[in-house]
Amino acid sequence: MTDDKIRVILVDDEPLALRGLKHRLSEFPEIEIVAECANGREAVKTIREKSPDLVFLDIQMPGLDGFGVVRALIGGPAPLFVFVTAYDKYAIDAFEANALDYIVKPVEEERLKDAIHRAREAMKSKAAANRESQLVELLASLSDDERDRIKELIEGPAWSEKERYAERLSFKDGSKVVVLNADEIEWIDAAGDYMCIHAGGKTHIVRETMKALQKRLDPSRFQRVHRSAIVNVSKVKELHPHSNGEYFLTLENGGELKLSRSYKDVVARFL
């Protein structure tokens, strides 16, 4: 570290969140972003190569999550970690005393400023050994993943085939962040530039493209049935063919969706 710059790596599997954080950090002249990573495996490799001072690390990522990234790095030089999370306060309480800092999505300028200040003060203390012991304590209390599993995820050649999808998904709905269990989501449909996520009798309006949203959902559980609709396969109760080659899906909640002819090859998934 120099007196002027803090070398930073950003890690988040959501492109919009990554761009937003990068934009926020551009307002701090002392920050030098040396790399951006879209998943945990890439983050471990890049952190080892770049040896950053500070890592802004998303917790909830498919495959190797934020805690797995930290655990994989134990034993080497430890950067400072600021966790970026959409988790509720109950989860934050569990690691607040151990992590350098945390930021709740959507990122607010004042919280970011505080995190950077804390990072600079911590780096001045040069307490690397203490930081590593804190990370070990953090992981012992929060992560049950075995080291072999992390090694498999990092080194396995068929990463894309082994990729897992998050059970809890966060969405920005207006001024608040909504966290949903994947199983709660019944269906999703498009409304102009927005997506309507229907879950538990409520509708959440989020500004995200259908393509980006689909990438976040487990394809074994969520099926595109129309150019503007995705359905949770487990929520489909009945399937009714239509004379023009289309189908109508009846959901457990009584709702009805159309499966267009363009997607008729997926009918077998509902049988």
Using brief descriptors, characterize the structure shown.
OB fold (Dihydrolipoamide Acetyltransferase, E2P); about 270 residues; about 35% helix; Rossmann fold; five-stranded antiparallel β-sheet; five-stranded parallel β-sheet
Instruction: Name the structural class.
Output: alpha/beta
Number of β-strand runs: 15
Terminal-residue CA separation: 59 Å
Helix content: 25-40%
Q: Would you give the CATH topology of the largest domain?
A: Rossmann fold
The overall pLDDT average reads 78
Low-confidence spans: 157-163
Give the CATH architecture of the largest domain: 3-Layer(aba) Sandwich
**What is the H level of CATH, i.e. the homologous superfamily of the largest domain?**
Response regulator
Radius of gyration: 21 Å
SSE map:
Blueprint: E1 6-11, H1 15-25, E2 31-37, H2 40-50, E3 54-58, H3 66-73, E4 80-85, H4 89-95, E5 101-104, H5 109-125, H6 128-142, H7 147-155, H8 159-162, E6 168-173, E7 176-181, E8 185-191, E9 194-199, E10 202-206, H9 210-216, E11 222-226, E12 229-232, E13 236-241, E14 247-251, E15 256-259
Parallel strand pairs: 1-2, 1-3, 3-4, 4-5
Antiparallel strand pairs: 6-7, 8-9, 8-12, 9-10, 11-12, 13-14, 14-15
Helix pairs in contact: 2-3, 3-6
